[in-house]
Amino acid sequence: MPLIRCACHAGFSYWTGAAAGPPDALRSGSEPPASGGPIDPSIFEEVASASRILAVQGVLDAFGHVSMRHPTAPDRFLMSRSLAPALVTAGDIMEFNLDGEACDPQGRGVFLERFIHGAIYRARADVASVVHSHSPSVIPFGLVETPMRAMYHNAAFLAEGVPVFDIAEEFGATDMLVGSWQKGAALARSLGDKSVVLMRGHGSVAVGPSLEAAVFRAIMTETNAKLQSQATILSQGGPIAALSPEEGRLADAVNLRVIQRPWELWKRSISGRS
Amino acid sequence: MPLIRCACHAGFSYWTGAAAGPPDALRSGSEPPASGGPIDPSIFEEVASASRILAVQGVLDAFGHVSMRHPTAPDRFLMSRSLAPALVTAGDIMEFNLDGEACDPQGRGVFLERFIHGAIYRARADVASVVHSHSPSVIPFGLVETPMRAMYHNAAFLAEGVPVFDIAEEFGATDMLVGSWQKGAALARSLGDKSVVLMRGHGSVAVGPSLEAAVFRAIMTETNAKLQSQATILSQGGPIAALSPEEGRLADAVNLRVIQRPWELWKRSISGRS
Amino acid sequence: MPLIRCACHAGFSYWTGAAAGPPDALRSGSEPPASGGPIDPSIFEEVASASRILAVQGVLDAFGHVSMRHPTAPDRFLMSRSLAPALVTAGDIMEFNLDGEACDPQGRGVFLERFIHGAIYRARADVASVVHSHSPSVIPFGLVETPMRAMYHNAAFLAEGVPVFDIAEEFGATDMLVGSWQKGAALARSLGDKSVVLMRGHGSVAVGPSLEAAVFRAIMTETNAKLQSQATILSQGGPIAALSPEEGRLADAVNLRVIQRPWELWKRSISGRS
Amino acid sequence: MPLIRCACHAGFSYWTGAAAGPPDALRSGSEPPASGGPIDPSIFEEVASASRILAVQGVLDAFGHVSMRHPTAPDRFLMSRSLAPALVTAGDIMEFNLDGEACDPQGRGVFLERFIHGAIYRARADVASVVHSHSPSVIPFGLVETPMRAMYHNAAFLAEGVPVFDIAEEFGATDMLVGSWQKGAALARSLGDKSVVLMRGHGSVAVGPSLEAAVFRAIMTETNAKLQSQATILSQGGPIAALSPEEGRLADAVNLRVIQRPWELWKRSISGRS
Predict the structure, then answer these.
(1) CA nearest C239 in D: which residue?
(2) pLDDT digits (tens, 9 = 90+) for B242-260
(3) CB of C141 within 8 Å of any CB in chain B?
(4) CA distances from residue D86 to A107, A158, C265, D50, D53 in whole angstroms, order as listed
(5) Catalytic residue among B46, B113, B212, B222
(6) Is B31 a catalytic residue?
(7) Looking at beta carbons, which residues of chain A come within 8 Å of B229?
(8) pTM to 2 decimal places
(9) What is the ipTM score, two decimals?
(10) What is the distance between the alpha carbons of residues C81 and D45, in angstroms, rounded to a whole number?
């Protein structure tokens, strides 16, 4: 997959609205975008750890990816080159602009669906990290009319509602992949101000105010999906007393404060693995 | 999370009624409560083992905790500092009074939900150990009208009935956590004289006459939940021939006599892990 | 649990009818029964391997047991002392008569439910091995009106029908355990001439013409239970095209001829474990 | 199981029609068929890796097999001798003609169901690899009226439809195995031009234009089956928005281009295993 090379984006302003038209950068150019500035090497380690954690936790398999917004340049983000998530190390992390263009490609392959990440960082100034996965228990919720709801406090971020993005609504029959900025922008519009969006026949995206939060939410979305399937069996058509939106807001605030505990545990689970 | 420091509770009498008002200890004071007395070091090892066993068995993940009543001071209990259960070792075990105040805090973080434990030890003189978990198959039973029942002899302790604690009934919209003695007391009232109480949108609590019994019950509650989900699928609306209360009483007595066999097996499963 | 000591049974004749009254041996005596004769040490190794295989395969946990009829004395059988199945080695295998009395107890604890084995060996001359388990997916089938059926050729032995033993029918409220020769005989009557009998609120028993066959059947019964649960979900009340009894007979004959292939694979899975 | 020895097939022409009558080769002869020509040793390694990958992924257990068409002789294929898939190494790979006759038997046991492979290679010139498995989540779909559909883009190859082969329709009560060229030909007719065929009461077959593609499809069929069971629970009788045939075609084309990524990951999962 050849890299799209384009005009330098050093001066590209950070735009938080959903994309309404093609960014200029896609229309011309021959140079990769400039870097958003130097980054502490430990950041690359953390992004790579997130990737391997998500693989060990069964959220990512050979596909899917996690990204993090550049800590000082909001119009840049960090993501692995195209590689199975379980194999990602710090040296695989690349920098992209919000159009999904690599700042220093070095001939490396990049993920076709990097537009998911760029489009969401553009639309959501509050988002610092994005996880795109095909985690298995979540996929069925993108295919049915039953909405995903928050089954317990650790999945409290779902209580605000979980939209479904059906790529066919705007784009007709496709290969189901978010392989263009237009599709990325449409996905970001479906996500709106929520924490998770389901993708019909494909997977889902979880976002958060930190790398740890996005990883936590991706993992808990998978767990919650399993719980809701069980609750559906047990309820036999009766009510399921999911968290209310207010309960969700209150519980999510606590989760974000204690997130370091699971994060440290998960990091131990990947030590010794590359 | 700063520790609440309070008046010494050396003379605090052991009270088995459910909490009706705020214990005096919460109203004033500056000294931590006194210890209930010296404890054989092997006890700390056993409590830590219980924590790691529950992690290996999938009952606890990054959250949840197990405690044990002080062997000679019934108004004290032992529980890990705030730490992922898989990582707990003997040195992490702290002593608390029944208000959840640490006897020798040493600046260590404590679990927000230690009130679950204190309140139950206060209300139930027969309880020597408490496990609070978010074990996944159990959570859906706290959300639906279908009561949990005993599917087989190893889960016989469920045949007496399994109440559901809905924190919203008394406290309205909350963060779902049992983070105060009032909430702990309400939970203990829901538990009543039973072995397990489900917590809506949160998890569950299992209690027992020994550390081994509480661990066994927490594990078997998770197993039973899986079985009942399967039985619900298979019954297709027809009857499920669960254990009767009398069968439950008879079978539970046998379980408590043979509990050392699974306990030794589970201890082997954690050897070499910290 | 003290061993019941009884009169020597060296001359006890092999009786294939279901037990109608208490064997004489249970009424008096002070000497353990005589051994049925020397056994090749590799036989003990095979019985112990079967125990550990069933643990690794998830059919046995801390409870349950596998036995084998004495190769030359049909009124004796071999079974581990009371021990978690995952820990059994050749030195733990003991010899029993069909009343469940140990020939050389040496003060070792024995399984309470050894009567399951003795009663079935007495009632079924064709049976060379018995597995009693609480394998999780099977238990729900003992609680519902939906009969277990053969979902695929490897579980062909189920196509002949799978009876359910409800201990309450004959014995009222009990501890659910088969802890006497009377209960063992009732269970054997429920089994009849089939390969598997389900035990309400407890577990199941699988039998076979060889140790390998009984182990294979216990494992495949667990697998089949999972498949039938899935088929029940998918059929949505419609038909499930299970194997017919004739298909079952034909396919089971093939399975018994190729059984060494899974057996060797399973033995590899336990090498290095004790 | 003795090998059928037959006339040399060196000149046997490659025939893509479904078998309408017994190939001449089955009627007489005494010599094994000639080899299709020398093969790069790395090919044998790849076929053996495929076998072990499918075992590690839970698609194959003690039974089942994967084959690959001879790279230069379309009327020959490569498959392991009769052996548990987890144990297959390059030296176990044998060459067969499309009648399932070994070119150089050396007294080795061969799989009874090698006719599955030969019949499909004969009927489908586009197929380069065949996997036959009893992967557990797939089996129930062969027993019910609910058709298997594509739940997500990685299982896009299912969107064209998934036929069910009921061996009883043509052959009455059997041992359920495809143990003759006639049964293999009937199975190939059921498969038609699709990628997967379900076998009632038995398992399934996945085919692909390359070894990697057939392995990928066998694994994704198992995953898809789990997803569809969950979707069926969640839909509660309502619609399931599976991939349309056109979406399936478009997404499958992408999958085939990125297949090396999971393949390399899966190969890492078997390194150090034999």
Answers:
(1) D144
(2) 999 999 999 999 999 999 9
(3) yes
(4) 38, 41, 8, 10, 8
(5) B113
(6) no
(7) 230, 233-234
(8) 0.90
(9) 0.89
(10) 46
